[in-house]
Design goal:
By secondary structure, the protein is of the alpha+beta class. The chain has helices at residues 33-46, 64-77, 102-116, 135-144, and strands at 49-58, 81-86, 90-99, 126-134, 155-158. A hairpin with a 3-residue loop joins strand 2 and strand 3. It is globular and about 60 Å long. The model has no long low-confidence stretch (mean pLDDT 80).
Length: 159
């Protein structure tokens, strides 16, 4: 058994450890420009964005105290939850989601209620509405005065 520092070459050996390096900024030079442009576009598409989500749920009446407690637990489990409004037969949840595109943001939003139904003890309500807009659109709507104004201060509130 050989005793040595991890990564150290054996004594009396001229071997050196190989390491990898990333390509330099000018790596694409001299290559097909269409291929280089496609790589840049692909990298840009992979970058994620912030999406404002409004999820509406509705169903059979449930005690208000239980609905509030469940939404507070959901807010604890999902820390990006901004605000929730609720009544005994419906609720609206607003939050920001980070995702690559609208499809991914919508898919995550549509799973939110079902995935947290048992852990947060949410009512057995169904999703009846979903709005997903990008950050720029959200701020544009607010600035123009016709967007979804904040439902209430951050937190869980009755209608």
């Amino acid at each position: 058994m050989r005793r040595a520092r991890p990564g150290a070459p054996p004594r009396g050996s001229a071997e050196r450890a190989l390491t990898s390096v990333e390509a330099g900024a000018d790596f694409d030079e001299g290559q097909d420009t269409e291929t280089a442009e496609a790589r840049v576009e692909e990298r840009a598409m992979v970058a994620s964005k912030l999406w404002h989500i409004t999820l509406s749920v509705s169903g059979a009446e449930a005690p208000l105290k239980e609905v509030r407690r469940a939404l507070e637990q959901l807010a604890h489990d999902h820390p990006f939850l901004l605000t929730s409004r609720y009544a005994n037969d419906h609720a609206e949840i607003r939050y920001w989601e980070e995702a690559r595109d609208l499809h991914d943001a919508a898919a995550v939003a549509l799973r939110l209620w079902g995935e947290h139904r048992q852990t947060a003890k949410l009512p057995p309500w169904e999703i009846v509405g979903l709005e997903v807009i990008d950050r720029e659109t959200y701020h544009l709507r607010i600035a123009e005065g016709y967007g979804p104004p904040p439902a209430a201060p951050v937190g869980v509130h009755p209608y």
